[in-house]
Specification:
Shape: globular
Structural class: alpha+beta
Distance between the termini: 55 Å
Helix content: 10-25%
Strand order of the largest sheet: 5-4-1-10-6-7-8-3-2-9
Strand content: 35-45%
Mean pLDDT: 78
Largest sheet: 10 strands, antiparallel
Low-confidence stretches: 1-7, 13-21, 139-165
Number of helices: 3
Radius of gyration: 16 Å
Number of domains: 1
């Protein structure tokens, strides 16, 4: 089975399942990032955005990044009407920097994808090397089970442990 056949099969499975049951999470990988104080740009972003869901369906697929951006405002509970939370995880040398953001207004130009961002936890560097953006499902609050919620909960636990010493 080719990768395209696997993607088609996964998308068919997702379409046939009850949409209330599938909460897709998305991953976008980039060669580098830059931040100008308002817009975060993923340079060398992948041509596909990986999507996956948790139990019970465990759907995985590759969605063309152009389709991801083009569909930003589709539906009643779209990313445009309810901006998603995300964690940008950047790798510079031996250091990993995770920052929780809210994404809006995506713009794709060639292999550069930029978002207007609001930082909710952490600090965005002006530039970084290889990075992955983990985007929470549409219309979801920053719950304990969301990518951003788990990240924030982990930071709070770390701060509490450090404060107790």
């Amino acid at each position: 089975m080719t990768r395209l056949d696997q993607t088609d099969e996964a998308m068919d499975n997702m379409a046939s399942a009850d949409p209330k049951e599938i909460e897709a999470l998305y991953v976008q990988n980039a060669a580098s990032t830059s931040f100008d104080g308002q817009r975060l740009t993923l340079s060398g972003v992948g041509t596909t955005t990986l999507l996956f869901s948790d139990r019970p369906d465990r759907v995985t697929a590759h969605l063309p990044t152009t389709e991801f951006v083009d569909g930003w405002g589709d539906g009643d509970d779209s990313f445009a009407s309810n901006p998603p939370n995300a964690v940008l995880s950047s790798f510079d040398g031996d250091e990993v920097n995770d920052v929780v953001v809210v994404l809006s207004e995506p713009v794709l130009k060639g292999s550069d994808l930029s978002y207007l961002v609001t930082i909710t936890d952490g600090e965005l560097a002006a530039s970084s090397a290889e990075s992955s953006m983990f985007i929470d499902s549409i219309g979801r609050p920053m719950s304990a089970g969301s990518v951003a919620g788990v990240h924030r909960r982990g930071r709070r636990r770390t701060r509490r442990r450090v404060g107790r010493r």
